[in-house]
C-alpha cells in the first residue's frame, strides 16, 4: 500500500489525529510562552469555542454526506474538472491543486468580509474577545456550510485529486490552529516564516477592532496572496500588546456563550467592516 492509499483509507483517523496533536501542542505552547496576557479565563471561552466544532461537524456531515474528498472521487470517476481533462504529472497536479485551493479560500475569505449577509455569518469568528488557538475553531455552522459548498465547487472545477483535497483540508485545519495561537515567536523568525506561512502575529492583525486592519491579512495557509493582491498589513497600529481584539458590537462576555454565538447572524446590529 502506498502512502497515498494509506492516507485515503485512514482519512478520518488522519484528520482527527492531526487535529488533536496540533490543538494540544498549541495549547501547551500558549501556556509556556503567551504572546499577550488574556483577561477572559479559558473556562469561559474554551467550552463554547470547542462546542461549536461539534455543531459544525454535525452540520457538514448532515448536509454534505460525501464532503469535499468524496466529491473529488466522484468528479474523478466522471472525468470532470481541469486536471481530469488535461493530463499532467501526478506530483504537479497535487501541488497546483493545493495552491489553487488555497487561493480559493483566500478569495472566499475576502468575499465573507465584502458581502453583508456573508459577513453576518463570518463576524462570529471575529467577535471572540481574545485571540488564541480556539479562535481558529470558532466559525458559525452556516458559514461552514457555505464554505463547504464553495470548496466542493472548486474541487469539481479543478478536478483536484482526493489526496490533494485531504492534504489541503488537514493542513488548513492545522494552520488555522497555528496562526490563531497566542504564542510568542522571535521577531526575526516571524519575519522569515511569514514568507512561507501565515504566522500568528501576521493573522492577529486581521482580528483587530479597527476596520481597516480587520480587512487585511486574509490568508490562512499561504501568505503570498495578501502581498500579491494588496491586502497585507505588517503590524497593527497599536502594536500587538496594545491592540484590541474583536468587534465593537459584541463586547459583553455573555456574547461568548454558544447560544449567543449561534444567534449572532440574526441580530439586528450588523457592524460591517468598511
From TrEMBL:
For this UniProt record, the keywords arranged alphabetically read as follows: Lipid metabolism, Membrane, Oxidoreductase, Transmembrane, Transmembrane helix
Q: Which InterPro entries match?
A: Fatty_acid_hydroxylase, Sterol_desaturase/TMEM195
Q: Does the keyword Lipid metabolism apply?
A: yes
Q: How does it sit in the membrane?
A: Multi-pass membrane protein
Which parts form a coiled-coil structure per UniProt?
none
TM spans, by residue? 12-32, 53-76, 88-107, 148-168
Among Pfam families, the record links this protein to:
FA_hydroxylase
Residue ranges constituting the Fatty acid hydroxylase domain according to the UniProt record: 95-231
Q: Name one GO biological process term.
A: lipid biosynthetic process
Which residues are the signal sequence here? none
Could you tell me the superkingdom of the organism this chain comes from? Bacteria
Q: Which GO terms describe its molecular function?
A: glyceryl-ether monooxygenase activity; iron ion binding
GO cellular component terms, semicolon-separated: endomembrane system; membrane
**Annotated localization:** Endomembrane system
**Name of protein:** Sterol desaturase
Amino acid at each position: 500500500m502506498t502512502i497515498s492509499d494509506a492516507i485515503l483509507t485512514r482519512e478520518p483517523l488522519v484528520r482527527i489525529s492531526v487535529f488533536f496533536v496540533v490543538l494540544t501542542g498549541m495549547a501547551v505552547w500558549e501556556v509556556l510562552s503567551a504572546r499577550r496576557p488574556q483577561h477572559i479565563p479559558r473556562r469561559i471561552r474554551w467550552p463554547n469555542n470547542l462546542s461549536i466544532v461539534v455543531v459544525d461537524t454535525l452540520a457538514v456531515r448532515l448536509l454534505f454526506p460525501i464532503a469535499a474528498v468524496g466529491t473529488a472521487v466522484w468528479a474523478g470517476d466522471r472525468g470532470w474538472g481541469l486536471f481530469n481533462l488535461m493530463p499532467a504529472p501526478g506530483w504537479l497536479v497535487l501541488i497546483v491543486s493545493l495552491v489553487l485551493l488555497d487561493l480559493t479560500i483566500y478569495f472566499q475569505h475576502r468575499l465573507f468580509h465584502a458581502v453583508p449577509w456573508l459577513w453576518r455569518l463570518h463576524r462570529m469568528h471575529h467577535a471572540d474577545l481574545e485571540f488564541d488557538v480556539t479562535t481558529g475553531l470558532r466559525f458559525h455552522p452556516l458559514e461552514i456550510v457555505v464554505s463547504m459548498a464553495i470548496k466542493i465547487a472548486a474541487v469539481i472545477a479543478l478536478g483536484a485529486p482526493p489526496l490533494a483535497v485531504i492534504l489541503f483540508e488537514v493542513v488548513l485545519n492545522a494552520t488555522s490552529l497555528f496562526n490563531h495561537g497566542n504564542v510568542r515567536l522571535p521577531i526575526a523568525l516571524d519575519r522569515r516564516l511569514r514568507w512561507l506561512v501565515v504566522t500568528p502575529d501576521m493573522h492577529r492583525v486581521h482580528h483587530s477592532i479597527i476596520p481597516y486592519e480587520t480587512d487585511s491579512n486574509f490568508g490562512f495557509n499561504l501568505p503570498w496572496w495578501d502581498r500579491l493582491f494588496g491586502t497585507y498589513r505588517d503590524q497593527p497600529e497599536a502594536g500587538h500588546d496594545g491592540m484590541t481584539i474583536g468587534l465593537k458590537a459584541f463586547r459583553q462576555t455573555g456574547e461568548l456563550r454558544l447560544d449567543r454565538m449561534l444567534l449572532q447572524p440574526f441580530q439586528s446590529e450588523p457592524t460591517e467592516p468598511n
